[in-house]
Amino acid sequence: MSSVAIILTLCGYLALLFVVARRAARRGDNATFFTGGRTTPRLVASIAMVGAAMSGVTYISVPGTVLTDGFSYLQTTLGFFVGYVIISTVLIPLYYRLGVVSLYEYLDSRFGGVAHRTGAWLFFVAKIASASLRAYVVCVVLQALLFDGYNIPFAVNAALMMLLVWLYTRHGGVRSVVWTEMMKTLLMVGSIVVCIVFVIGDMNLDVEGAVATVADSHLSDIFFFDNPLDSRYFWKQFVAGIFLVVAMTGLDQDMMQTMLSCRSRRDAQRGMMSSIVLQSVVILLFLMLGALFYLYLAGRGISATGGAMPLTDASGGVVVARGDDLFGYVATECGLPMVVGILFLLGLIASTYTSAGSALTALTTSFTLDIMGGKSLTEERLSTLRHRIHTLIAVAMTLIIICFELFSSSGVIKLIFTVAGYTYGPILGLFAFGLCTRRLPLRYAPPIVAVVVPVVCYIVSAHSEAWLGGYTFSYEIIVLNAALCFISLLLFSKRK
């Protein structure tokens, strides 16, 4: 794929992004930035929510996981359904009843300012790390495809990305994010579908034949009930999926800001349930694409020895070192039409820029209102504070992305979910304690518990094989974190 095609694709998408963001942000006041004016149509919110749940990491990593994990990710997706029901029936009514702008205002009304700031800081640390990691993955791809050819350092690549993200979210905030997320969803799904069509065409298959070929392969295995010690074990992934989606969606300002921008509680609830149906279809498309890629390469003499990375050719040379490199390699290096490479790049760019923009907006909202107490300020002073924080967080994300270059890792989606277990777990424990009990934690119990419990969980996880008869923790580490946080708060609490 030529650098000219890459540059034209990038510039074309950015032009479209800024047009949509500018039209969405015509007012540009604080209400528009924080809540989108609560005018988002339900269908738009539902489609945007699908995009919010999908990042560049999803785009790159999910197809690559098929080699070792099959379609087991669908087990986690089944848990997502249960989690979305909980969000729709418990959390959304709570947020609309309280009229919150930031989710963590609930902790203030229930426990006081210390717990409020504890929840906000937990979210801030979790989100700035995960959002930066997602952006880093795409920066790596763009570095290899474009910037290395012009000897442009990785730091410039990262800074340019965040500068553009900062510019398009600066005024519009949530309203810009919602409409660009919807655009991202449509572009990303369209690119996946077209890529599938071209790959099965090159394999001389029709749609029915492609489905049958994938179904006959071990790559399409979904359910794993045999070995509780396996990270793919059904009940591990299903239960973890419930807790992950409640914590990473229902208690995440970034994810919920779309639904909080709806006109009413009912619209938000309906939009939430519609989005999980659409999201499941998109995840299935990602997995189907990954299976087809591996079968396509196997037909060209490129496969994995022992069923694990790397992929090697007949001479033993490494062709694809990591699962995260699979999509990019097939799209740009296998002789498929240039349109496949362009669509890959377009989907990747769309998924990353809007995800980074959404995270930047949510971080700005939470830091301004929760940590800096912005609600007590005049409209003018709040606007000034918001702009300053928005800029500082964009700079911080840039620096974190650059730092990740020193500690690159494969299988990024697994890493994100693991990190989430240690950061969102205490948030989940805090909210569960508030909703399920009438007790009040001691004043400084929330921040102490939020620090100590993840450390304890990490120690348990690191030694679980020796202590628990070979058991290893996967995504379900979030359950342990939330449970220990809940129990600790119960021990250090008093009657209301």
CATH architecture: Up-down Bundle
CATH homologous superfamily classification: Sodium/glucose cotransporter
CATH class (first level) name:
Mainly Alpha
Mean pLDDT: 87
Structural class of the helix and strand makeup? Answer: mainly alpha
Computed Rg: 22 Å
> Looking at CATH, which topology would you report?
Sodium/glucose cotransporter
- CA-CA gap between termini: 64 Å
Number of strands: 5
The largest pleated sheet is described as:
3 strands, antiparallel
Shape: globular
Strand order of the largest sheet: 1-2-3
Per DSSP, the total helix count is: 20
Number of domains: 1
Question: Helix fraction?
Answer: over 70%
Q: What ranges have pLDDT less than 50 throughout 5 or more consecutive residues?
A: none
The sequence of SSEs as H and E is HHHHHHHHHHHHHEEEHHHHEHHHE
Percent of residues in beta strands: under 5%
Explain this structure to me?
This protein is mainly α. It has one domain (3-495): Sodium/glucose cotransporter. The chain contains 20 helices and 5 strands. The protein has helices at residues 3-24, 30-35, 42-53, 56-69, 73-98, 105-111, 113-145, 154-169, 174-202, 207-215, 234-250, 253-259, 265-298, 326-333, 338-371, 379-404, 412-436, 445-462, 464-467, 477-491; strands at 303-304, 311-312, 318-320, 439-441, 493-495. The strands form 2 sheets. A 3-stranded antiparallel β-sheet has the order 1-2-3. Helix 7 crosses helix 16 (379-404), helix 14 packs antiparallel against helix 15 and helix 17 packs across helix 18. The longest helix is centred in the middle third of the chain and has 34 residues, at 265-298. The model has no long low-confidence stretch (mean pLDDT 87).
